[in-house]
Each structure stands twice: as C-alpha cells, then as structure tokens.
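Workshop exercise sheet. Pairs work together: one partner reads the sequence aloud, the other fills in the structure field after running the prediction. Swap roles for the next sheet.
Pair: D.N. / O.F.
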Amino acid sequence: MPNLTLAAIAALCGAVWVLGLWYLGIYTHPAVRSWQRLARLRGLADRRPWGERLGARLPLFRRVQEETDIERLLAIAGRDESAAAWLLRVAFQAGLALATVLMLDEAALLLGQRSALPPGVGLLAAACLALLAYLRLRRQATDRQQALSDAISDSLPHLAVMTFHHRVPVSEALLIFARCHRERVLYRLLTSEAGPALHEELARAPSSPVAAVHARSTALTYEQIGLAYGVPMFTALASAVRRVTERGLTGRDVYTGLARTTFGARLAEARVTAAQTKTLIVIPMGLMIIPVLVLIGAPLVASIAGIFAG
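Structure field:
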C-alpha cells in the first residue's frame, strides 16, 4: 500500500507553490500589472477584504458572514462593548461552566464515589452557554431592528405634515418626532456617534465620485444607515427623500403613500400572526381533552378487562 502521507505533503507543497506564484503575479502580463498598480495609486482598485468580495459573488456566504459578524450584531443591538470584549466574556463564562463540571467530577472521585458527570457534559454545557449568548445577542439585534422600523413608519404621517411647506428639513423633523417617541431607540441612533462610523465604513466599499460629492445628503445618509443596520425602512425613507428632493414630487403625497404601504404590510403581518395564534391556541385546548378521556375511559376499560378475565 503506498504511503499517503508523502503524497499529501507533496500535494500541499504544490498547492502552496501555485498560490505563491499567483499571489506574486509571476505569470501575469506586464500590462495587467501596470494597470493594477495605476488603479491602486488612483484609488480605483477594489480594496474590500476578500470576505466581502466573495460575499458579493456568493449570497449564501454573505448571509452567513452577516449572521456571524459579532461586531455588526453588537452595533445593531446598541451595545457599547467591542467584539473582542464580547468574545472574551462569553469564553470566560463557557470556561467557568466547563471548570464547574470538572470540579464536580473531581470532587466525586476524591470522595471515592463514581463520577457524577462525564467530561463531555462540561463541553456540552460550555457550547450551549456560548450558543445561548449568541442567540441572545441576535435576538436583541432583531428587536432593535424592528423597533427602528416601527419608529420610522409611525413618523411618516407626521413627516408629511411638517415638511409640506419645505420649512423644516426631513432630518430635523425626523429627529423631533424621534425625541417624542416612548422608546427613544431611533433618537439614540440618530444622535449617536458610533452609528455613523459604522455605516460610513460600510459605504466605502461601493464608493464613487458621485457618492463622494453627495456624502452628506440626507437620502444617502439614511440609505447607508439602512444598509449598515439592516433596516429596510431607512432605505425606503431614503428613496422617498430622493423622490422629493431630486424629482420635485410633493412630500405630502410621497410620505403618505409610503406610510399607507407600510401600514398595509404591518396589517397583513398582524393578520397572519393572529391566524397562527388561533392555531396555537387550539392545540393546547385539544391536549386538555386527553386527561378527560383517560378519566372517563379508564374505568370502562378496566371493567371490560375484568369481564373478559373472569
């Protein structure tokens, strides 16, 4: 039987050699290398990380990358800690759970008893604790996204009224109404300093001269926030603002039309949720009949069994 280890090592060395030649551009045409160098000097080259470039080509990989991006989830959830701090805290909690299980196992062995829990239980507890921490963070991010979307949709009719005479900008009107909300999630986002830093960083990827000129426009700012925080209502609001400012449409008609569409979607979602709730209520009520049937049928079954036994 041939030695597979040597073949694997040879294949690995060959793959590393080919990747090195590709990275150094040994077989790249000189004109292509000159163009790449000129593009880097002029700022025309795509400087995004390889993960983002691969995600642009593979939607599934981009979805997985967005779901596992701890820094993005922390920013969406409105938490001030960094990704490294969150990972260290979760790792400490998981390690503490593993150490607790191992200490219980060691204490049982010192007392001369059988091991209470196998070591695999400690690993399972640590993994479950890390998974619960991730699910909790993802739940907080989803709740904040929903709260932001609801806050924007509730402010649309008021924006149509306040911006009708073009005396108050949309950004100031939205900030005023965000301050009046019971849950000031939208107000904290619009006035925070961490939020713009995040969506400006994500907006550098598709940068263009037109985007650089209009980097401070309200529509582009709302669009960047919507892309960074995953809130489609910000993107819809940016499109509405762009129709008003660039195409000259009436703000009252645009914002009220967007509000009507949004409230219609929320009404349809509420109807679906109500229909699903009816089904979920019927299931426990049906399960409540089973004990009654057991109480009624058990004596009858016992009597019939006694008759046949006699």
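Discussion prompt: The radius of gyration is 30 Å. What would you look at next?
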